[in-house]
# Entry
Amino acid sequence: AQTVTQSQPEMSVQEAETVTLSCTYDTSESDYYLFWYKQPPSRQMILVIRQEAYKQQNATENRFSVNFQKAAKSFSLKISDSQLGDAAMYFCAYTHNNAGNMLTFGGGTRLMVKP
Amino acid sequence: DADVTQTPRNRITKTGKRIMLECSQTKGHDRMYWYRQDPGLGLRLIYYSFDVKDINKGEISDGYSVSRQAQAKFSLSLESAIPNQTALYFCATSEAGAEGRNTIYFGEGSWLTVV
# Structure
């Protein structure tokens, strides 16, 4: 079975600084996808970034980037120039080919941004 | 209008009562899912449906049942609610195929408290 682990229940960052959220996963699949979702206090689940395992290049979306280490099964999220609006729960998630888009989630990291 | 609508958004119910959470989507997707979110555990899959006649148990289906009334509607029922079913419930949808590359649409969540 696949598992996703987020070892940091809470993180804090100063506004305009950079923060990295950690995620590790376990799978025996070779064709899989990893995601970071943001959940603000509104409870929405917002896709931040997606990484396809067969792509060596790390995904980037504006201030958000990932460090995908396939051999180590590590998938960290870096937020640059942190903004107050980045404060939220962040979930790492996984799915694999033939999984019907069912997601396995980590336990989440609560990010606080200090002004 | 939201792509995925959940009702109710919030509900308090008593132990032993039957409660139904409803989900409807306007995306025309075949696949629908129910997840449960608990602190520290992330989201876990309760049930999923790949079309109207295909319903499957997820990781934590005990104590829950579902009904896929139409392509657009997928309801989750707690036949006899218990306090440890207090959680935030999410409905989600996705297109079939292109696993991992399809966008997964989440509803806004239904917060259920069982007292």
About this structure: The two ends of chain B are 32 Å apart (CA to CA). The mean pLDDT of chain B is 94.
